[in-house]
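Work package 3, deliverable 3.1, input record:
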Amino acid sequence: MSLRLGDIAPNFKAKTTEGEIDFYEYLGDSWGVLFSHPADYTPVCTTELGKTALLKNEFAARNVKVLAVSVDPLDKHMGWRNDINETQNCTVDFPIIADEDKTVANLYGMIHPNASETFTVRSLFVIGPDKKVKLTLTYPASTGRNFHEVLRVIDSLQLTAKYSVATPADWQQGEDVIVVPAVSTEDAMKKFEKGVKIIKPYLRYTPQPDID
Ligand code: BEZ
């Protein structure tokens, strides 16, 4: 059975490019992004890990720790990391897990046998500080992921964890958000001091509450 939203993200110990880690200890109280790629020394994967490294400050600003994983061995990860740094003008300093025995891949359902019996697909999990799965994404080997979208979802997850709001389609930081249906309009008027715009009784907007 694959992991679903709200499930506890399983813990594991693993060899990585940053040394041996215990996943939960590594995450501590942070949010986590655990993402698999099919194989080292492949072009799309090279751009994905490079992009993640270039977004290091964006992940840090959101208190997110990232980890990559594939079934390649550690020495291969080490050599490929040099190529990523060289070609993508970055410094990969997040752990790349060497999951040769497929422990992590199996725990997280990252191998989809009808796509490949051997390699992990492009799975991505966002894990909250409570160690629960907040987002799952699965992309095929031929399509690189959009890491700005991952950051956008994390912004939404962190905002909606704090306030009784949801974010509309294509929402970006600073745009109006939606008052969740569980809050009555009367309560919303009291709760959201910046005001509530009522389009329909079930479609109500308020300015993003955590910014001026
Ligand atoms: C890539 O990263 O470019 C890739 C990996 C596996 C299959 C196809 C593409």
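The first strand starts at residue 13 and ends at 16.
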